[in-house]
Design a protein that fits this description.
The complex is a heterodimer of chains A (711) and B (292). With 711 residues, chain A is α+β, with helices and mostly antiparallel strands. Chain A contains 14 helices and 37 strands. In chain A, the strands form 10 sheets. Chain A has an 8-stranded mixed beta sheet with strand order 10-9-13-7-6-19-22-21, with no helix packed on it. Chain A has a 5-stranded mixed beta sheet with strand order 24-25-26-28-27. Chain A is elongated and about 110 Å long. Chain A starts with 11 loop residues before the first strand and ends with a helix. Chain B has 292 residues and is mainly α. Chain B is 84% helix and 0% strand. Chain B is built from 10 helices and no strands. In chain B, helix 2 runs antiparallel to helix 5, helix 5 packs across helix 7 and helix 7 (160-194) crosses helix 9. Chain B is globular. Classes of the chains: A alpha+beta (711), B mainly alpha (292). Chains A and B meet through helix 9, strand 37 and helix 14 of A and helix 2, helix 3, helix 4, helix 5 and helix 6 of B.
Chain lengths: 711, 292
């Protein structure tokens, strides 16, 4: 019965990490298959709710070994294979595996116990990390992020950058926080005294967001470290991404967290105002003790919940194949549970915000459906959404594995779909960040840009092409228009591929990382085709799920999917920030002189003829092939093609018709063009459009004057 | 209040010439601005195809790009608009004086006579403007500042209910206060025109008149201001349904806009006439200097 819903072919049991082929895990595929599998493997539905919890704590496997080729969908005999596999999966021994055996991507497995004291704004905890050296060189030390120390004083690297990048927002903020390691033991050896702060990015002595723990014995490649840490954290007042606001706690980046060890060095950057995060996959087993009345949402699946009899309760969450763990707590939160596109979804919101829940849930549904169709099924057993409300707006629009924070919809008219686009963007991050875990410090564009591109596509599919973001009293805009505006204002001169903290400011980071990347992929559609770009995304996901790809890996996947080398596009646009600007600089026509000299007298009278000249110039450094449309006073429009390599190209026409106008990239497909105004030129200036706009503005000016005169 | 409203409407309808003059002045300023806009856009867009395609669709990013390439022209454009606005404000001091003279006049004053009478009142009206504008800005801005401070406090203390209340109440509260001071200013001008009192005394009198609810002065003013908003909303609803991607649509929208504007000018005259009637009902008077 379950297998009858599967329509893929070439199923083969193999390890989840073995894929250099175009494979995608079927673990969370079509709803009924997943439901059946979960029932067989010990998952259970929670009462009337539509979410899942596991009943076997030791269970470590899952359907991770089921691999399908999403490119081949012409099923044949598939149902039999799938049914057989489901049976195998159900009876296969799952207990007794170590955390990482069979799952080489699970490098850092965390078991954390933490207690929240909301009155004192203190979080105390103990964590045990089962870390494996996945590099090819011995590790003489461990390196930890202590992110909340960014909020320890006004001179941390984060605070210095924040004050520059967002002037005025810090005024009066004094919600200092921090985190302190009180004890650290590695493989039984007490290393507390040896722990020291590190500054890999700048020599800022006031910054303690990274610490190094030298080891008594280096950990060899493949070797393991058993790390025990006790820590205590002062929760900062919410400034950006994490902290408290009243009784609302958004607890993210809250525990001592290992960096990523590769090639003999730790990738463990300080916390920057613009940069986000990077860490290894693992299993998180987190036990939280909170006051009884607090509702909690977290990365992972709730395994246990017990009352302690002292006004607190303890909740245990387990999340597999994640690289971070975030949670929220608020006594006012209510839960809305749904199964959307086969995925159990929990939305946490305060009652006044829950009225707008449908907006978020509908958008999430569109995103999950689009990804299932174009990339892969949702990869985790559930998804938690948090509407932080306006009181927690500084924690809004953030992504964590299996948990995202939304943009509050209260006070935002339905005709303005910013909450919807945010929900779509953050769900996109479950693919481009949570599963395909690129380095957000160094290549923020890889997750933010791909999510922005996905956001454009989902919003178009769900809400229409031209008005999917704003449709308000005749004012229409889509997400692409928003990205183009951000790009034109802030992103034209910025290379995309650069570390997040090296951008000039917040807006140039947004303009390049989010907008320019998305527009670059839209522009690539013009050259490679939309299907090839989407196939590239699928391939990139299949190749790099549960791993840490770089920009180069993305470029290779796109080229492989397109069946040709696309480096000519990626190299200048992404790596060098080459500008794109093609312009029609001349459209001229002159009468063709009648024939003179030999044969002039014998020639029959000719109708008036003209010689027309169109000059196209490449003003930017990027060299892209372009289409050119040339329109004449009568007759069909002519289409020309230019490889765009030279600085300029001239087209000449002789005939009885004069050129009316010429346009380079007439379909507007090159969304990276820094100046769309010069993309076209008329021989004689037209004014009809200007008249409309001018009179419209004139009338609005009349209204303004009338408003003045009302007093 | 109802009789003041009805008599005020009759008074305003008997002054079509004045309404036409008000509309004409407004339209001239709007026309100048439209011409500047067309000129500025033509410069920024050069001979781009956008100069035609803007008739069919408004590509905001392209327009933004045009603005970015013509920043100095835009700055000049903005400065010219500011000068136009200032000139209009000065002109309207005199026009307001003409309206008040006309509606307070016992007979039906012609346009020329109203303008001459208005010229005599321009001085006191200017002084009243100097009192009324700061008072209104302070009071309205004060409400907005309080609302903003409440939002800040709500954010610091995480009192979301306070934030909601501040947002929900801030703008309407400021509008209520603005309408109050607009009513005070109107009554002060009428008072200054009909009694030989200085600007301060007139303003103080009007402040008490409106604040104490004499003849429901505030309600009348708010009703007339609300009607102005309603007229604007009707214009917007109809205009949104007129396609402007072809020239006849553009012309129709333009004509409808000017009809709407003329009606709002009539409403302005009506407002002064009704408020003058309200004062008459409370304290019979005749215009100082007017023939008895």
């Amino acid at each position: 019965m379950a297998a009858s819903t599967v329509s893929t072919s070439r199923i083969s049991p193999m390890n989840r990490m073995s894929g250099d082929c175009r494979t995608a895990c079927l673990r969370a595929t079509l709803g009924r298959v997943v439901a059946k599998c979960r029932q067989l493997r010990g998952w259970r539905r929670n009462g009337d709710a539509s979410w899942w919890a596991r009943s076997e704590p030791e269970w470590q496997g899952g359907l991770g070994c089921l691999v399908v080729d999403p490119m081949a969908r012409n099923a044949g005999g598939l149902q039999v294979l799938a049914a057989g596999f489901l049976l195998l999966a159900a009876v296969a021994p799952a207990r007794g595996q170590t955390q990482s055996s069979g799952f080489p991507h699970r490098v850092a497995n965390y078991t954390i116990r933490a207690r929240l004291d909301p009155a004192a704004k203190v979080l105390s905890g103990v964590e045990r990390i089962d870390w494996r050296n996945a590099g090819d060189q011995a590790a003489p030390e461990l390196c930890f992020h202590l992110y909340w120390n960014a909020f320890a004083n006004s001179r941390t690297t984060f605070m210095r950058e924040y004050a520059v990048q967002r002037p005025g927002e810090l005024g009066g903020w004094d919600g200092w926080g921090g985190i302190e390691i009180t004890s650290v033991r590695v493989n039984g050896s007490d290393r507390t005294a040896a722990t020291r702060p590190a500054h890999p990015d700048d020599p800022n002595p006031s910054d303690r967001t990274v610490v190094r723990v030298p080891l008594a014995e280096p950990i060899p490649p493949g070797g393991a470290a058993d790390v025990e840490i006790e820590f205590e954290a002062r929760i900062p007042r919410l400034l950006l991404r994490a902290g408290y606001a009243g009784r609302f706690f958004f607890v993210a980046q809250w525990y001592p967290k290992l960096g990523v060890y590769r090639n003999g060095e730790w990738n463990c950057h300080q916390y920057h105002a613009l940069a986000e995060f990077f860490s290894d996959f693992g299993t998180y087993d987190v036990t939280l003790t909170v006051p009884h009345r607090y509702a909690v949402g977290a990365t992972g699946v709730l395994r246990e919940s017990r009352e302690n009899g002292d006004g607190t309760r303890t909740l245990r969450y387990v999340a597999e194949d994640v690289h971070d763990f975030a949670w929220v707590a608020d006594p006012e939160f209510r839960e809305i549970r749904r199964e959307i596109d086969g995925v159990p979804v929990v939305l946490l919101c305060r009652p006044r915000d829950c009225r707008h829940a449908e907006r978020h849930l509908e958008a999430v549904g569109h995103a999950l459906a689009w990804f299932r169709k174009h990339v892969a099924p949702y990869p985790y057993p559930m998804l938690t959404l948090v509407d932080p409300g306006w009181v927690g707006a500084r924690a809004a629009s953030m992504e964590y594995p299996m948990l995202v924070s939304l943009r509050p919809a209260r006070w935002i008219p339905r005709a303005v779909r910013l909450p919807e686009s945010t929900a779509v963007h953050e769900v996109s991050h479950q693919y481009w960040y949570a599963v395909v875990a690129s380095n957000e410090f160094e290549e923020a564009w890889l997750d933010e840009g791909l999510s922005s591109y996905s956001e454009e596509k989902v919003m178009e599919a769900a809400y229409g092409a031209r008005s999917n973001l704003v449709d308000f009293f005749g004012l229409q805009a889509d997400v692409v228009a928003l990205h183009r505006s951000l790009f034109l204002l802030f992103g034209t001169g910025e290379p995309i591929a650069q570390p997040a903290w090296e951008f000039r400011d917040w807006w140039s980071y947004i303009g390049a990382t989010y907008a320019k990347t998305a527009l670059a992929l839209r522009t690539l559609e013009r050259y490679a085709g939309e299907e090839a770009v989407l196939a590239g995304l699928r391939l990139f996901y299949a190749r790099w799920q549960w791993r840490h790809p770089t920009g180069g890996d993305f470029f290779r996947a796109m080229s492989d999917a397109a069946g040709r080398d696309l480096e000519w596009f990626f190299e200048p646009i992404f790596r060098h920030g080459a500008g794109v600007d093609y312009a029609v600089t001349r459209v001229e026509t002159s009468p063709l002189e009648p024939l003179r000299g030999a044969g002039a007298g014998a020639a029959a009278p000719e109708p008036p003829a003209y010689r027309s000249r169109v000059v196209i110039e490449r003003l930017g450094e990027a060299r892209l092939p372009v289409d050119i449309a040339v329109s004449f006073a009568e007759g069909p429009e002519m289409r020309e093609a230019w490889d765009g390599q030279a600085r300029w190209r001239q087209f000449e026409y002789t005939g009885t018709q004069r050129v009316h106008y010429a346009a380079v990239d007439p379909r507007g497909a090159i969304l990276l063009d820094a100046d769309p105004v010069n993309n076209s030129r008329m021989r004689v200036s037209g004014t009809r459009g200007l008249v409309r706009l001018g009179f419209a503005w004139g009338f609005w000016f009349q209204n303004l004057l009338h408003l003045l005169a009302a007093f | 209040m109802r009789s003041a409203l009805v008599r005020g409407l009759r008074t305003s309808l008997r002054r079509p010439g004045l309404v036409f003059l008000l509309w004409q002045v407004n339209a001239i300023f709007g026309g100048i601005f439209a011409g500047l806009a067309i000129f500025g856009l033509a410069g920024a867009l050069d001979r781009s195809w956008l100069t035609r395609s803007l008739l069919r669709e408004l590509d905001f990013p392209a327009l933004l790009a045009a603005g970015l390439r013509a920043v100095p022209a835009l700055e000049l454009f903005g400065a010219t608009a500011a000068v136009l606005g200032a000139m209009y404000a000065v002109a309207w001091v005199g026009l307001h004086a003409a309206i008040v003279f006309s509606v307070c006049e016992t007979g039906d004053a012609g346009v020329g006579e109203s303008l001459q009478g208005g010229a005599r009142l321009a001085g006191p009206f200017f002084r009243l403007l100097c009192i009324g504008v700061p008072a209104t800005v302070a009071a309205t801005g004060g409400v907005l500042l309080v609302a903003r401070a409440a939002v800040g406090l709500a954010r610091a203390r995480a009192w979301e209910v306070l934030r909601d209340a501040a947002i929900a109440g801030g703008a309407p509260g400021a509008l209520v206060v603005f309408w109050f001071f607009a009513a005070v200013h109107d009554h002060a001008r009428i008072r200054a025109a009909v009694a030989e009192e200085g600007a301060w005394r007139s303003y103080w009198w009007a402040l008490r008149f409106v604040a104490l609810g004499r003849r429901r002065a505030y309600l009348l003013a708010a009703l007339l201001q609300g009607m102005g908003l309603a007229l604007f909303a009707i214009w917007a609803l109809v205009a949104a349904r007129i396609s402007t991607d072809w020239m006849p649509g553009v012309v129709a929208c333009l004509v409808w806009g000017q009809i709407s504007m003329a009606m709002r000018m009539l409403l302005r005259v009506w407002a002064f006439a009704a408020q003058a009637e309200l004062q008459v009902q409370g304290e019979p008077w005749r215009l100082v200097g007017a023939p008895g």
